[in-house]
User: Fold this.
Amino acid sequence: MTLRTGSNASADRLGRLLNLVPYLLARPGIRVAEAAGDLGVTEKQLREDLELLWVCGLPGYGPGDLIDMAFDGDRVTISHDAGIDKPLRLNQDEALALVVALRMLAETPGIGTRDAIERALAKIESAAGDLADAPVAVRLPANQKKLEAVRAAVDSGHALRLTYYTAARDETTERTVDPMRMLMVSGTAYLEAWCRRAEGTRMFRVDRIDAFTELAEPSAPPVEAVPQDVSEGVFRPGPDLPLITLRVGRGSRWITEYYPVEQVERDGGEWLVTMRVTDLGWAQRLLAGLGRDVTVLGPPELIDRIRAQASTALDQYV
Assistant:
């Protein structure tokens, strides 16, 4: 099934949509209020999900390709399921891609559903025949041992002393932290902990932990140490962060997809992009790598930083 929408819907909503169609197929004419109660959502959320289902279906999106529904007052019936009730048939490339993804997931430390992953992998490999012996060895990057070591230290329930590299400021610092949890976000491992130096909850990328020491004292995050909502990513730009404005050429438009932006306006063949950044030093290093394809319009402090950097670089050639 292909979802035709530009929305960055959460994984929870995707799972709800996938369950919604078979649920409604088994209960034609069910009241929206009753369905919302069964599914544990509000009527407003369920109606928004039903509206999204209108544009879900199979590639082609012609007559007979999309899911269709019929409404009778406050009752809803799936009139065409677009083949969602048919057994899934994977071709060899699709099956191999799924096997590789599951093998990678099974190798990830800290995954609590490893048994379920291995059972699913065994079923797919059994059904796929030759794929069971496919010459694909999946291994995590070189920081796997570090990830496992940090995970073990967190499980021990002790505080940690970290030597940590902060990319935003291009500096390495020493911190004592009270670990809270390990988590994976978009394929990157993080340690979430209360940082005693910052006096706040922080997310530490495991691959940027240069060294750590497990302390004898127990991990004791204070009551104000609240886990961060990472459903939309780790970086959550707020009004307190620096706001920068850029004129972006065609070759660097990718930054609007890779980084959160607040506004994009077209200006002829270029884009005017407004975005918040964690630190002007980080923005300076990012923009230096983009070259003449990006012009900084503000703030003045960032313009001065880049002008000084360019002047220093030119002096090296004199």
User: Anything to note?
Assistant: Residues 1-9 have pLDDT under 50 and may be disordered. The longest strand covers residues 171-185. The radius of gyration is 25 Å.
